[in-house]
Amino acid sequence: MKVLVIGATGGVGSRLVSMLVESGHEVHGLHRKPEQAKMLQRQGATPRAGDLMEMRPSDYRDAVRGMDAVVFSAGAGGAGEVQAARIDGDGPEMLVPAMEAEGVRRLVVVSVFPEAGRARQVPDTFEHYMACKKRADVAVARSGLDWVILRPGTLVTAEGDGCVTAARVAPYGDVARGNVAAAIAGVIERPWLRWEAIELTDGETPVGEALDGFRR
Ligand SMILES: NC(=O)c1ccc[n+]([C@@H]2O[C@H](COP(=O)([O-])OP(=O)(O)OC[C@H]3O[C@@H](n4cnc5c(N)ncnc54)[C@H](OP(=O)(O)O)[C@@H]3O)[C@@H](O)[C@H]2O)c1
Asked: Does domain 2-215 have CATH number 1.10.287.130?
């Protein structure tokens, strides 16, 4: 499959690129810094330059043209509200019509666990980030695409042991970035898995088995 990964150089995205290449997919990775192109090439992916702060609807169309699937795993992190609005909110919102226009149906979006801020002191910027993610989720869920929204708990920099809890409604917890990447790769391998928002944490069930549970 020809897969565009937006956020290909991130903690989740870079792990995902390697997994998809390893599985034989043709992976295209969006990056914003020139030096990241070589890294993507070393991983076996095709680099595609693009800054989400600058990209316009036509740039999204150019980026997705000819793809079989698109993964959106980019995020502004702590860069600020303007960046969160543009990347975490507008990004998927602009991606959806671009994919519809280009006839690319498969979309996997990395969102956030709804309980992320509960029982914690969080800054206003965090509330803003959560609102941007929700705005994006709504745009994706209202689309005519074959979408899956993944909602990971708190991301931990680790490969993970490949075992997760993945459910429509699940208890909140941490999740290894490697496990999130494995879950995205697992969704890509399961075209029947669509129109689901999946809460994801580390757990006891192998990723493939957890995703197959959505057949019921
Ligand atoms: N942190 C958490 O606990 C948590 C929890 C749930 C969900 N999430 C979400 O999970 C997703 C993946 O997280 P992660 O840890 O992999 O994030 P990350 O390591 O910060 O990676 C973010 C990716 O987005 C890219 N990006 C940022 N600004 C960009 C721009 N202007 N143009 C193009 N690309 C840009 C980054 O590129 P560079 O390499 O150039 O920076 C990087 O590839 C994000 O959507 C995040 O919001 C995070």
From this structure: no
